[in-house]
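Hey L., structure's done. Input below.
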Amino acid sequence: MDKNLSQIFIVWDKLFGTFVEEKKDIPPIYGITRPARTWNPIKINFQHLWLMIKDAWRTNNWVDKFTLWFKPTGYRPADVAEKYPVYKIEDVYHFEKYDTKTSPLFNAWCWVQLTLILLFISYLFGNIAYINSLDSSYIYWYGAFVFLSVYALTDLMDRNRYAIIWEVLRCGLAFWFLYDQQDWFGISKMMELKFVLTGYFGLSVVVTGWFVVEHRKEDAEFNIAKSNADIK
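Output:
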């Protein structure tokens, strides 16, 4: 367990006397003992809260239903922890890290998508006043587009079959922008990209769908091979 709070605000270490010098005989390991096991940052931010909500609902102890919210980090009601165990790293020096199976083609596609998402965000930040002057609601719609972009890509990286649903929602929203504005939030003042973006979003849906199908095939083959190995 991390003994220092300085990654948040170093003054807390001074106030609470929690600062500890790094020990040469104990190599530092960075991470969490209850691994997120996802690349999706939205899921990561709400995983712990969601687990607490489920624990409060599932426990038969009415005291725990109301007090678990104020318990120390990692606390779970005894009956829920026994019935619904959650994976926790016991040996921080020897554990299996989250590493989804990928291919060079899939890696290349993810890099392309990540780069384009960063460009979309950069355009928003660089032209936020102009976009807001076009319509004050555009900022919120653009934010929704960025949210869906991150969610769809990271769900695909997790090999989640529902990634195609998020990608369709993302590209559907983008098509609506292009149709409604006949532009992409005023980008035509710099360059004409309407048809390029239309082609990109259409391609993105097709490629994402293809990867989802391929991942499901690979996972099915892996499960069959694993079952045969267990039988032998």
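The CA atoms of residues 55 and 221 lie 35 Å apart. The two ends are 41 Å apart (CA to CA).

-- N.
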